[in-house]
Write a structure and sequence with these properties.
This protein has 5 helices and 7 strands, in the order βαααβββαβαββ. With 163 residues, the protein is α+β, with helices and mostly antiparallel strands. Bound molecules: coenzyme A.
């Protein structure tokens, strides 16, 4: 049984999102960098800097005590400052992470589904993401209806229609 609940992300969740961004960037422990190094990298940092801007949306999973379990959020990027999973201006790109001690208990899939519902409710037609092909997370995305639309340097850009 899931012992977490999911709520909308707020402006107070910047720290949790930064934690999850570090988890996502460091998914492969062989190539893991320090938290500071990851968050200093402009190509990574722009997924969370200034959270929560207009247009940003997301959700946070919490345990019974209200402690964060993981998060999934999305942000719009302009074509001249794209994210790794950029497909078009107006298509939000998502980031997903679950704290290690909470993995493989359904939180990642639940967060991904909730983000899709939130995106649709906000009037978005699609969500995009970037994932390295060797990250098992890609199987999660495939099983949730995301399709590969571009590939580069071992990473795939994936898109899902949300309504
Ligand atoms: C990817 C991630 C968010 C998944 O979250 P999670 O809560 O562990 O995932 P879930 O429990 O919802 O499981 C989703 C699916 O992945 C599978 N899975 C979970 N852990 C796995 C593992 N270590 N190896 C292979 N498959 C795994 C599950 O079996 C499940 O599939 P199923 O429903 O068919 O059984 C989490 O592992 C994570 O934070 N990883 C590091 C950050 C990251 O890589 N983010 C994505 C960057 S694109």
């Amino acid at each position: 049984m899931n012992v977490f609940r999911i709520r909308p992300a707020t402006g107070h969740d910047a720290r949790v999102l930064a934690d999850m961004l570090v988890e996502a960037a460091n998914w492969n422990p062989v190539r893991a960098r320090s938290r500071l190094t990851v968050l200093d990298d402009p190509a990574v940092r722009h997924y969370v800097v200034g959270w929560q801007r207009p247009g940003d949306f997301g959700c946070v999973a919490e345990d019974a005590q209200g402690v964060a379990v993981g998060a999934c959020w999305a942000r719009l990027f302009p074509a001249d400052h794209p994210g790794y999973g950029f497909v078009a201006a107006g298509v939000p790109e998502l980031t997903l992470g679950v704290y290690p001690q909470w993995r493989a208990q359904g939180a990642g899939r639940a967060l991904l589904r909730e983000l899709g519902r939130t995106a649709a409710a906000r009037g978005h037609a699609r969500l995009s993401l970037s994932v390295e092909r060797t990250n098992f997370a890609q199987r999660l995305y495939l099983s949730e209806g995301y399709v590969i639309v571009a590939s580069r340097d071992g990473s795939d850009t994936m898109v899902r229609t949300v309504r």
